[in-house]
Design a protein that fits this description.
Elements (H helix, E strand, L loop, with lengths): L13 H15 L5 H25 L1
């Protein structure tokens, strides 16, 4: 699932996003195309937001 397909307020866990990042790298064979790089960057932003959300909830 692409981060763009999530609706407002929909948040996946950091683990779910991390799994998608790993899958992207595996599919790409370790070298990302321009399109894959853009997807990777969106996933990293989503992952960071999920991490922040988890930290805030824990506090």
């Amino acid at each position: 699932m692409s981060p763009l397909s999530l609706g407002p307020g929909s948040v996946r866990s950091a683990a779910e996003v991390n799994e998608e990042i790993r899958a992207l790298w595996l599919r790409a064979g370790g070298s990302l195309s321009t399109q894959e790089r853009a997807e990777y960057e969106l996933l990293v932003v989503e992952w960071a937001a999920a991490i922040r959300s988890a930290v805030i909830e824990a506090a």
